[in-house]
Amino acid sequence: MTDTTPPTIIAFASPKGGAGKSTTCLAIAGALLSKGYSVHIIDFDQSQTLWRWYTEKAAPTATTNLTVQLPPKENLSDFAKGLWSHPADFVLIDLAGQLTREMLHLAVFATLTITPVQLSEPDIVEANRIHDQLLDIQTRVHKPIIHRLLVNNVQPLRGAFENALLDELIQAQLPRFNRLIFHRAAYKEIFGTGLPPHFADQTRPAITKAVDELDALFAEIETALTDEDTAIQPPKKEAA
Ligand SMILES: Nc1ncnc2c1ncn2[C@@H]1O[C@H](COP(=O)(O)OP(=O)(O)OP(=O)(O)O)[C@@H](O)[C@H]1O
Ligand SMILES: [Mg+2]
After folding, report:
1. Do 114 and 218 meet the contact criterion of CB atoms below 8 Å apart?
2. Which residue, 65, 102, 166, 214, has fewest beta-carbon neighbours within 10 Å?
3. Overall average pLDDT of the 50-56 stretch
4. What is the pLDDT of residue 188?
């Protein structure tokens, strides 16, 4: 009997280059694979980061549970619709740094859209922008869109400036995961060793800290996927 359960589709979207879409996508893919899920990745990144990782470096992680593909050049909408019948448990979409309207529409097909942001002013401006764009799409297509920011690449010794930006993010009430992803060698190394933290040397504290971080994030992802009322909420109107 064929399993007809649609996959959970997670899109990594941010118009800001270098925010950590490809890195967090692959780190989360590793976490999912280690839990026994099958994962299919679609690499829209202009530099084909994950495709190159898969074809050149992924051998140690290569299981039949992992596939990576480049997207088609056209008919994106049909392609996106087809994803709902993909046999993998999870389909992860690593979107390009420059988000076109067409690409943003992939968020409509995604079960969850994650926007990695770093604690920098331009990242936060872009995060607000993408959130507004998704809200706009949600209103037009009448389909709830689940969107979460993921604060990434946080320096362990945060300065007053980063703390102020984090406060700003909290006050802006943009939906985000509470778990912060710290700046760690374990993430940087993925593209050198080929190993996402869950597959790297677990005797190194630098690796296990990343694994714990990702597992805590995964618990929050699961909640975001199962909670009712989790979709983007229209901004509350200011009292007159
Ligand atoms: N948590 C982290 N710790 C350490 N390095 C990180 C972390 N997140 C990202 N990086 C590094 O930051 C750089 C940019 O990350 P990445 O390529 O994932 O960003 P991106 O959003 O996919 O960029 P693009 O928009 O160009 O596709 C990479 O060198 C990556 O190794
Ligand atoms: Mg990328």
Report:
1. no
2. 102
3. 93
4. 95
231: nearest Cα among 137, 98, 100: 137
Residue range 108-148, pLDDT digits in tens: 889 999 999 999 888 888 888 999 999 898 898 888 889 99
As a whole number of angstroms, the longest Cα–Cα distance in the chain is 60
Q: Which of 129-143, 155-169, 209-223 has the highest mean pLDDT?
A: 209-223
- The token duo for 18 is 């270098």
Q: List all residues 6 or more positions away from 50 whose beta carbon is below 8 Å from its beta carbon.
A: 22, 25, 26, 41, 43, 68, 94
Report residue 101 as tokens. 């309207």
Pocket, ligand 1, Cβ cutoff 6 A: 14, 17-23, 45, 49, 97, 152-153, 181, 183-184, 187-188
Q: Considering only CA atoms, which residue is closest to atom 4 of ligand 1?
A: 183
Asked if 84 contacts 7 with a C-beta cutoff of 8 angstroms, the reply is yes
Among the atoms of ligand 1, which is closest to the Cα of residue 184?
A: 3
- Domains of the chain in sequence order: 8-226 (3.40.50.300)
The 3-state DSSP class for residue 5 equals: coil
Q: How far is the CA of 77 from the centre of ligand 2 (A)?
A: 21
User: Cα(207) to centroid of ligand 2, in Å?
Assistant: 22
